[in-house]
Amino acid sequence: MRPILLGIFAAFFFSVTFVLNRSMELSGGSWIWSASLRFIFMVPFLLIIVLARRNLLPLLKAMKEQPRSWLLWSFVGFGLFYAPICFAAAYSPGWLVAGTWQITIISGSLLAPAFIETIQTKNGPIKIRGEIPYRGLMMSVVILVGIVLMQIENTSHISFGALFLGIIPVIIASFAYPLGNRKMMEIGKGRLDAYQRALGMTLASLPFWFLLAFYGVFTVGLPGSDQVMQAVLVAICSGVIATALFFKATDLVRGDMQKLASVEATQSMEVLFALALELIFLSINFPTLLSWTGIFLVILGMILHSYASQKRTVNRKQPVGIS
């Protein structure tokens, strides 16, 4: 229950990202700065936390052991996740991007065979290759139908090209985030806490963000003061608080791909949180009945997915090794 609650709290703080990204876009800010500034500003906040906990040296030692892996999977987990999310904000309202983002539940389930699970048995722990949780995946179809219903309303007032640019980047991000996160958990082997992992991945992804910022200087110019302040808020709410909560939740179920999928499913609450915040602060139009139906199906799908994922089967594949 604790990982689920942590996941829901993380969803609230993550929802701030979608709202502020849309706000920055509507005020004329570029997605390039919305993306790069968040991670650049995250560094000092996370660094202070890790230093205060006296955990910096173990992190640097772990990063030094596998620098290429840190660079690669941090780029995947943070770079290929957040840059497309910010890009999509230029074409869709925040709550709709948040809704489409819930396809990550399906993406995360499909990634299960790429990882090794540790299972406790009466003969000791064994390692087996993860299985796609088909029961949970079938429940995820409800979420997919909900996303389609929400997008139908969006098609009535934007072009197909804009719709495409608002959806495809989110789908790319939906695979990149769980893939990068799980790979870094695998590399860390439980030695790093949530704050260490968040700081390490942020540091390792900085080359990408600096390159993106450098590109932004010559294409869209420097960001305005309003965008800088909003980017700081995103860095604190989403980059520090939400990321730490989500990483803590996933650490609690590390090695159990089905429970991990349940934690990732809590992120569907971002839709409601983002919608509520946009209604309050951005005065957006109230969603139609069709969109509300889609939102309801997304939340229902999350609940069904979490329930199905906790019904673990006792049948397993042959062990691939002993830990």
From TrEMBL:
Keywords: Membrane, Transmembrane, Transmembrane helix
Top-level taxon of the source organism: Bacteria
Transmembrane stretches, start-end: 31-50, 70-90, 96-116, 136-152, 158-177, 198-222, 228-247, 268-284, 290-308
Alphabetized InterPro entries for the sequence: EmrE
Protein name per the record: Uncharacterized protein
Organism: Bacillus canaveralius
